[in-house]
Input
Amino acid sequence: GDSVRKMTQIHGWTAEETARRVRAREVSAREVTAAALARMAAANGAINAVVQPLEAEARAAAAAVDAALAR
Output
């Protein structure tokens, strides 16, 4: 669906483009984080690069970014 398509698009963005889009509120930090965590979960089984994903911390940081932008 649309959410899968959006996650795939986000994964292809550069860090600069991602930051610009978050600042412009085209996408939320929560959406970017969800996309990154989904990509990490999909790929990590094969490469075993992430030992401790810290998902809760990442989601909390994204929520803080979105809250700061909403002010």
